[in-house]
C-alpha cells in the first residue's frame, strides 16, 4: 500500500475532534479547513524555488521564490469543497476545478454529474481533494476524468482513507501519490470507513 500519512500532532488532534460525533457543523467545517491547510503545507514541502533579487529597505539581496509549475486544486463535490479554502489561503494563485461525483448508495459506484476544469489542466500540478477515500471508486473516477482531459501531474489528498481505497488508487493510478491524515481499519457493509467520521458531506453541509 503506497500512501503518505501526514501525522503532524496538530493534524492528529484536529482529526480526533472532527471524528467526534458531538462536533457540530460549524466546528466540523472550521476544523476541516484548518487540517486541509496543514496538510497542504506538508504536501508542498518540495515545491521548486528560484532565486530572485529583492530590494529591502536596506539593500538588495538574493532571495527565493516559488518557481515552476502552476497549481490546480480539484475538489470532488460535495465534500471536497470543505477543504478548498484552507488550501487557497496557502496558495492564493491556485486555480480551482470541480468534479461532481456522488456514490450510489446501492452499488457504491460513483455517478458523475459535473466537471469544470482550468483550460490548462495539462500544464498544472493538480491536487485532487476529498475528505474520504473509502472504496476508492470516486477518487479513481475523478483521476480518470482528469487524465482524459490531459492532466499528467496529479496528487490525491484525503483526510481519512480505508486500505481498500488506497489500494484501488494505487492499482489504477500508480503515478498518483496519495496523502492522508489517517488510514483507518476497514469498510463496513455499507461502504463506510470504520472508525471514520461518518458521512463527510452531510457533516459539512448539515444535511442528512
Ligand atoms: C463521499 C466522499 C467521497 C466518496 C468516497 O462522497 O466525499 O467522494 O463518498 O467513497 P468511495 O471512495 O467509496 O467512492 P458522497 O458520494 O457521499 O457524495 P457527497 O460528497 O456529495 O456527500
Ligand atoms: N463517504 C463518506 O462520507 N464517509 C465514509 O465513511 C465513506 C464514504
TrEMBL record:
It comes from Sporomusa termitida. This is Uracil phosphoribosyltransferase. One of its GO terms (biological process) is UMP salvage. It holds the Pfam family UPRTase. Allosterically activated by GTP. Catalyzes the conversion of uracil and 5-phospho-alpha-D-ribose 1-diphosphate (PRPP) to UMP and diphosphate. Belongs to the UPRTase family. It comes from the Bacteria. Residues 5-207 form the Phosphoribosyltransferase domain. GO terms for cellular component: cytoplasm. Uracil binds at residues 193, 198-200. 5-phospho-alpha-D-ribose 1-diphosphate binds at residues 78, 103, 130-138, 199. Binds 1 Mg(2+) ion per subunit. The magnesium is bound as Mg-PRPP. Gene3D superfamilies: 3.40.50.2020. Its cofactor is Mg(2+). GO terms for molecular function: GTP binding; magnesium ion binding; uracil phosphoribosyltransferase activity.
